[in-house]
Amino acid sequence: MLLEIKDLHASIEGKEILKGINLSVNEGEIHAIMGPNGSGKSTLAQVLAGREEYIVTKGEVFFKGKNLLTLAPEDRAREGIFLAFQYPVEIPGVSNTNMLKTAVNEIRKYRGEEEYDAMEFLQMIKSKMKLVELEQALLSRAVNEGYSGGEKKRNEIFQMAVLEPKLAILDETDSGLDIDALRIVANGVNMLKSPDNATILVTHYQRLLNYIVPDFVHVLYKGRIVKSGGKELALELEEKGYDFIKDDSGVLV
Amino acid sequence: MIQTNEINKWYISLFDEFERNLNGGTKSPVHQLRKKAINDFSQLSFPTNKDEEWRFTNISPLLKYKFNPALNAPFIEKEEVDRFRFNGMKCSLMVFVNGFFSEELSEIESIKDKLTIKSISTAIKENNPQIQKHFNKYADSSTQIFTALSTAYIIDGAFIHVPEGIIIEEPIHILFLSSSKDDKILSHPRNLIIAEKNSQVLIIEHYAGLDNSIYFTNAVTEISVGENAVVHHTKIQEESKSSFHIARMETVQERNSCFTSNMISLGGEITRNDFNTRFNGTGGESELNGLFLIDDQQLFDAHTLIDHASPHCNSHELYRGILDGKSRGVFNGKIIVRKDAQKTNAFQENNNIILSNEALVNTKPQLEIFADDVKCSHGATVGQLDNEALFYLKSRGIGEEKSRDILIHAFASDVVRRIKIDKIKDHIENILTEKFNN
Ligand SMILES: Nc1ncnc2c1ncn2[C@@H]1O[C@H](COP(=O)(O)OP(=O)(O)OP(=O)(O)O)[C@@H](O)[C@H]1O
Ligand SMILES: [Mg+2]
Question: Which residues of A41-74 are buried (b: 16+ CB within 10 A; e: fewer)?
Answer without folding.
Answer: bbbbbbbbbbbeebeeeebebbbeeeebbebebb
